[in-house]
Amino acid sequence: MIRFARIRQNFAHHNLTSPREHFRSLLESEKFNSAIQRRRRIAVAVGSRGISNLAVLVAEVVGFLKEKNIEPFIVPAMGSHGSATAEGQKQVLKNLGIDAKSVGAEIVCSMDVVEAGVVELAGRRYPVYVDKAAWEQSDGIILINRVKPHTDFVGRYESGIVKMATVGLGNHAGAQQVHSLGVDGLNRLMPLLAEAVLGEDKIVGSFAIVEDAYHDTAEVQWLDRSEILEKEPVLLERAKELMPKLPLDDIDMLIIKRMGKEISGVGIDTKIIGRLMISGQAELKSPAIELVGVCDITDASYGNALGVGLADFTTTRLFEKIDFEALKENILTSTFYSRGKIPLVLDDEKQMLLVGLEHFSRRGNEKPKVIIIKDTLSLSDMYVSEGVLDELKDRDDIEVVESAKQAEFDKDNAIILEF
């Protein structure tokens, strides 16, 4: 059986030493206070991503608004996530540590939208959908989101404030409309919709978050609504600079211990594994990975295995956790159908590894380059085969934490690892 060593990639740390104090300084700034001074009831829009310190930031914003005699309430801004239901989205927020008790504000959740305007693209008119409660029950909306590379495309605006203001805040209707045009909807329609929404005085502005390679908060900025379209692309470039990656560009097999909606919107970050799987879109050039296996899905995904189709293999354990209604709803909304295909279902992780090793052995490759990671958000500590270790031995940024030893399995034939 193959031997694995535990290694550590030493990325540069860019984390804020005291995120809470930094948040507070932004709230107390003249810029933020000027933005909220005319407001009496503000909707705080929160998405479905597992952002570091998100619950802390939301609670700080809520608490500060109350100090200023402004009534805050929370609205989910996550498109069709949570099975495109109000209760599902409320549960997603709860899994992120955000409920009425933890942040001190009511969660107002529904799939209802209003049309806040109309935009035109290629001779066709598109309504600007916005969450009804946020639009009608407040006199201001604050957006809170992370800015990062998107899993579907490359553009001026990817995953961040612009996307939250349109796809997220537009609920199921907004997400469905943008995704109905495929990547074109994200690249061309989304910025037009954002320009219309952000042009309305109802939007106060946004807290824009950038994370480092360790998923720690590296930067938070308050952007007034008039600054978002100009400054988000700068933050996106910063996020790309800090983004982690696998230690090699050429890998025989990657085993991902878990996928999840709080890890990536697609469960598995496409930019990490080098697979988009979108019809009409060119595949990424690196990394090049021949076989990908995914072993399990997080509880916070509630069975929505969108992105499982990015893998070649999965396990019975993951397959039996899939909520096919939730998966179907998300796939039909996104229109990226290949990502919902079920890969070859193997009994367990041991069989997955053995199938992969047999595949490479038939080709005369007795020392395949195999990497095992916790998930695509956690790329510091990982387990690598001796074939990978040979290529990393002269790298200054790689530390061998445990020398190579025989792979071991528990009673369920899951690979025994410590992350």
Helix tally equals 15
Mind telling me the CATH class of the largest domain? Answer: Alpha Beta
Mean pLDDT: 95
Low-confidence stretches: none
End-to-end gap: 21 Å
Shape: globular
Radius of gyration: 22 Å
* CATH topology descriptor of the largest domain: Rossmann fold
Give the DSSP E fraction (strand runs of 2 or more residues): 15-25%
- Say which CATH homologous superfamily of the largest domain is assigned: LarA, N-terminal domain
Query: Using DSSP, what is the number of strands?
Result: 16
Indicate how many domains the architecture comprises: 2
> Pairing-aware structural class of the strands and helices?
alpha/beta
Strand order of the largest sheet: 13-12-11-10-14-15-1-16
Estimate percent helicity.
25-40%
Q: CATH architecture of the largest domain, please?
A: 3-Layer(aba) Sandwich
Tell me about the largest β-sheet.
8 strands, mixed
What is the topology?
Layout: E1 3-9, H1 19-27, H2 30-36, E2 41-46, H3 54-67, E3 71-76, H4 86-95, H5 100-103, E4 106-107, E5 113-121, E6 124-131, H6 132-136, E7 140-146, H7 161-168, H8 171-179, H9 183-198, E8 203-211, E9 217-224, H10 228-242, E10 250-256, H11 270-273, E11 288-294, E12 313-315, H12 316-321, H13 324-334, E13 344-346, H14 349-362, E14 370-373, E15 381-385, H15 386-392, E16 398-406
Parallel strand pairs: 2-3, 2-7, 3-4, 7-8, 10-11, 10-14, 11-12, 12-13
Antiparallel strand pairs: 1-15, 1-16, 5-6, 8-9, 14-15
Helix pairs in contact: 1-3, 7-9
